[in-house]
Amino acid sequence: MLDPFAVYVIVLLAAGAAVGFVSGLLGVGGGFIMVPVQIWALTFMGIEETLAVRIAIGTSLAVILPTALSGCQGHSCRGVVRWRQGIALGISGLAGAFLGGGIAAQLPGDLLKFIFGLVVLASAAIMLAFRGKTILFSENQRGIFYFAASGFLVGIISGLTGIGGGVILIPILVLGLGFGMLEAVGTSSLAIAFNAAGGAFSYAVNGIGVPGRPPYSIGYIDLLQFTLLATTSILMARAGVRAAHRLPGEKLKYLFIVLMIYIGLRMIGVFGWLGLPI
Asked: 156-170 pLDDT, tens per residue?
């Protein structure tokens, strides 16, 4: 029988690999996979639940930063990152994520889990409805202000929930402004790196001195979890980029939507209310 710590390590390494691939493939942070796994891992190791939720969100954002940068570099080499728009999204998103992280540090764990679940379900609905055909506004109609406002709102959500925000940004870019899918994925990778930086810094600051944290933590960022998740996620992000440029991602997108719906329902407690052990 495996030692509990070995189980902890294996689960986080596997989660990091899945997150990296999803991030490179779809231009999302992968927090919707990481956060529930991290909460389980932390409570499995004896961390109190509200503290575990905050640590999971803060550490998720810290992992998203290098993972997104790895994916962005890969997409940039293929010429699909629109830097001006991505930086406008990112700088405003950084500010929003810092604010969202500060708010989340004051909320109880059950409420954070419920918010996380709702955001994941809404993101799944957006991805399910997204067809990439309708352009709502031309770039001339909105300009950089549109990107900055969108980035700030997505940043707040990112800081509250630990997701990078790509599942919201990509429909905005494609449906709202007519970006090509690969351009949206590449530009989103840049923007969510900023979101992750702002949110992770906020959780690091707001968690300083809080009792009960795991050893080797900076605020609400668990350095052991960060190392395990980031090690595999950074490597797999490049594999996701290659897949995005070689393979049709439509079927895979629907598999992720199913996973997101399951995670969202589980985080808001639907299965518990129904008495289902899943």
From this structure: 989 988 887 877 887
